[in-house]
Amino acid sequence: MIDPDVLSRATEKVRAASGDDVIAEMFRRSMADNLPAVSERLPDGTTFVLTGDIPAMWLRDSAAQLRPYLLLCQDDPGLQEVLIGVLHRQLEYVVLDPYANAFNQEANGAGHTSDETEMSPWVWERKYEIDSLCFPLDLAYKLWKATGRAEVIDARFRPAAEAIIDLWTVEQDHEARSPYRFQRHDDRPSDSLVRDGLGRLTQPTGMSWSAFRPSDDATDLGFNVPGNMFAAVVLGYLQEIAVEVLGDESLAARAKELKSSIEDGIAQHGTVDHPVHGRVFAYEVDGMGEALLMDDANMPSLLSAPLSGFVAPDDPTYLATRKLLLSPENPYYYSGTAASGIGSPHTPPRYIWHIALAVQGISSTSAEERQQLLELLRDTTGGTGLMHEGFDVDDPSQFTREWFSWANAMFCELALVHAGIK
């Protein structure tokens, strides 16, 4: 799946930067095994990517798992083919149902068929998350830039891009314009939306509404700020592609206008004054004065704003927010005898996520902090040598998801960034 020579050179750079044979071997093994274990090339030339141990393809996870491979694909044409195949399958899925977050390989009706929403046999799950639509645009832009190959932006791209802009525009006024409803009748309140599937009351902010977070948990306040940050960035990418590849000034203008509206919304509603940290980003807002100060381990998060491309790692508002997030003032920041970091309401209390630790390192301006976090990731696998979803801050042998390909990919990206490969 990845050229052995390309992987060998990268592994040696990781070994030199970390000074650690165990970290280097974990990197090599994950890069060699992770993508082949979850991906399948289909007869139509697209690539279907499982989300770890679930037999469905999430738009977010399938792209996030590719991040370290994007950093190495320039010298590997075969890997480029696999990555382009992932993008093209994502674009086809977006056109099928832009509100869906996870899809089946075939129209077989598998998945959450009892949910009260407009399900298609192609759809595994229809939890609408704004970030799910960001990832295909992000992947398209980065593949186009990394490879220069014309087939990256093919006939699938324009209808998917238009569907994304249409949906995000409608969801700027969810209360008045949205056709989306979602209810699931189980024992987890975070799996469903209140008010008969409409969600909590919101008022327009300029940002675009999201039903669920990247964790698959329902939003509390409707406007997820890190998701909108990512949307603003990829709308800039879309604008560039529309002009330079598609020659479509109308599409470019729509992307530019929506990007500006979302950015204004983040500035006016998504930042608040904190009594200790000063001006910080909120995690969610409702447009009626309520703001949620927290972060979730899943990406995009506030902590990952530099990875999304919304801010520089040394941006003052981001740094103030980072201090808040990596402190007990974030209700999902946990400290224990084995580790400290950000967890999620999606997993048990006092469980922190390997993804969040990797993001903390990648977004850091300190090589010392990156090294410390690589070593922490190395030491908290519970003896498996693999990343997990969440683990107990006092006992890393207690964890959720023994094998979680997205977390393994984030460890690899941190190792590459630490080695100077960005």
Automatic annotation (TrEMBL):
- Cite the Gene3D superfamilies for this sequence: 1.50.10.10
The record's section on Pfam families has: Glyco_hydro_125
Annotated SMART domains:
DUF1237 (SM01149)
The source's domain of life comes to Bacteria
Q: Which GO terms describe its biological process?
A: carbohydrate metabolic process
Q: Which PANTHER family match?
A: MEIOTICALLY UP-REGULATED GENE 157 PROTEIN (PTHR31047:SF0)
What is the protein's given name? Glycoside hydrolase family 125 protein
